[in-house]
Amino acid sequence: LAAEAARDALDFDEAAARLVTAFDLGIDDELRQTEVRLELGAAWVRAGESLESIRAYQQAAELARRVDDGELLARAAVGFEEACWRPGMLDQGAVDLLDEAAATLPGDDSPLRVRVLAGLARALAAQGDHAKASVVRANAIEMARRIDDREGLATVLMQAYWARGSTPLEEVIETLTESRDLAAEMGDIETQAQAMEWRILPLVAIGNVDA
Asked: How many angstroms separate the first and last alpha carbons of the chain?
């Protein structure tokens, strides 16, 4: 509860510290341990402690395998990719973990599968495999539209800047604009801000200084 209060106050260092305290006090149930590791990874990445976040998500993935929970493994994989991507640590195994998570999840469309595919597309593009990334990204976008997953759609569209290796910049700008507008409609300030930030780069690249 203390960690949750700190997180709501945007004090992510404090949230992480309280979650570490919870582990020191002891969490017997492995399923609950996994969930708290996921919370700890999210707190660390928002506190700017990428290495700590990576370790937390790795531990969460190991626990998810132990309890044989595909959903928890997928959440760990999505968080792990985010933690690796932020500091540009692209060789930590995010692609392999996301592939494993995608294979573990049920085959049905779901918001979690959209997030896994979105992370996989970005991880592949960051490693230079733009052709495969383009296919995975398109599948994620189609799935999000199919199930009306607006939050997932805004996220995968926001990450479209990484499609610039295989997509015309004008199309990248359109995708980021859709993400910005969709996030604004939902009140998702974080995704909206990121879409606005990434949108600046291709606008500069094509010389649209006014925009």
From this structure: 44
| Residue type at position 153 | L
As given in the structure block, the two tokens for residue 75 are 């959440």
The whole-number mean pLDDT for each consecutive block of 10 residues of the chain, a chain of 211 residues, reads 94 96 92 95 94 96 95 97 84 91 93 96 91 94 97 94 84 95 96 95 94 91
Q: Say if CB 98 and CB 139 are below 8 A apart.
A: no
C-alpha 163, offset from chain centre: 16
Helix (H) or strand (E) run with residue 28 in it: none
* CA 119 centroid distance within chain: 6
Vertex 122: Cα angle to 45 and 149 (nearest 5): 85
**Contact between 140 and 114 (Cβ < 8 Å):** yes
Specify the residue for token string 């370790």.
Answer: 55
Q: Which has the closest alpha carbon to 180: 163, 168, 165, 198?
A: 198
Helix, strand or coil for residue 77?
A: helix
User: Rounded to an integer, what distance in angstroms lies between the CA atom of residue 66 and that of residue 50?
Assistant: 24
The pLDDT assigned to 48 comes to 92
Token pair, residue 44, equals 């660390």
Structure tokens at 8: 């709501």
The pLDDT, as a whole number, for residue 91 is 74
Contacts of 28 (CB under 8 A, 6+ apart): none
Report the predicted TM-score, pTM, of the whole model to 2 decimal places.
Answer: 0.90
